Amino acid sequence: MNNNNHSSYNTYLPGLYTLALRWVIGWTYFSAFWRRLILENKLIPEEAGYIGEKFNHFLPNALGIQPIIEYLVTHPETLQLSMIAFTIIEAIVGLFIILGLFTRISALGVLGLAMGILLGSGWIGTTCLDEWQIGVLGVTTGFTLFLTGSGDYSIDQYFINKKYKFTQSKAFTLFGSGQLQFKNMKIFVLGISISLLTLTLATNQIFHGGVWGKLHNKSVKPKIEISNIVMNNNELQFEIYRTEGADVYGSFLIGIEILNENQEVVKQWNNKDLSNFLTEKIHNHYVAKVKPGKHSLIIPLGAKADISIDIQQLNKEQLHTLKLIDISGIEWQKEITSN
Question: How far apart are CA 163 and CA 168, in angstroms?
Fold first, then answer.
């Protein structure tokens, strides 16, 4: 049998076996571009469904990349440019994988994009740990396609069959397709495979407790953190931050109460008050915005805002506890400390 890198039957057979995998994973990334720009334009900040706001949803429990996400969601113009660039990269990587063009370098693109999904949103998923599964399978698929390259039904193989000179170079074998040869190939594959399994188990445990201990899912019910309570003249100012719950469904605040030391309500704002809440009394930090809705105050996942409420008719001694009430019945409380 001919042992030439690009003419041997065994050279392109692994790439042929992963044809369906290549097409499907390629579409999953190219379709992001297709959905955001062709079917609908989700790159306009003022429009509903803006991808930057969805990116904001990743922030509360992202692993290791929170500073990057927070910087972007606090700089809207940079965020929009990043979302455009990210979408273009997904389109190029996905299309190149589908076509089998420079397959190995594109496969590394798949691995990198999937790693971003895993670290950023691996904690999100209301039913089947959706984003975590997408992330770990995407990373593993990227590595597998890097190993196999493309076989028949690819542009890489077309170039090889035409015997273009550049296909005989080591660079093309590394970035495109052909028989990949590393020293100690078995050790290389084993080492990376162990690393990916470790990453899978570690993120499964960190995000969901899926390896040992008690399972948890931060996407099931909303959680709001209350902090930075300050009495300023006739107003009580406080910060709210929605850190858990479904990313596609807001927390609907239907009540704010001020309680005294005996846990008696001394002042309250009901759902009607909150649906008419003045927007100038809300200072949003990120692109995901707290805002009054038809029947409540809407708090999207990842939203952080400073809220100001009027307390001019209350004595300082009456201010002991701040309570927030969600439409689901969940309540959050924070003690009001003296300045």
Answer: 8
| Contacts with 107 (C-beta within 8 Å, 6 or more apart), sequence order | 97, 142, 143, 144, 145, 146
Rounded to 5°, the CA angle 186-192-193 comes to: 85
What confidence tens digit (pLDDT) does each residue in 141-188 have? 999 999 999 999 999 999 999 999 999 999 999 999 998 888 899 999
Domains and CATH numbers, the chain: 9-208 (no CATH), 223-335 (2.60.40)
Under 8 Å CB-to-CB from 150, ≥6 apart: which residues? 12, 15, 22, 100, 103, 156, 157, 176, 177
Question: Rounded to two decimals, what is the model's pTM?
Answer: 0.88
Helix axes 130-148, 19-33, angle to 10 degrees: 130
What DSSP string describes 293-329? -SSSEEE-TT-EEEEEEE-TTS-GGG--EEEEEETTS
**Do the beta carbons of residue 122 and residue 63 sit within 8 Å?**
yes
Which pairs with CB-CB distance under 8 Å and at least 24 residues apart come from 163-166? 163/6
Q: Which two tokens stand for residue 16?
A: 């042929």
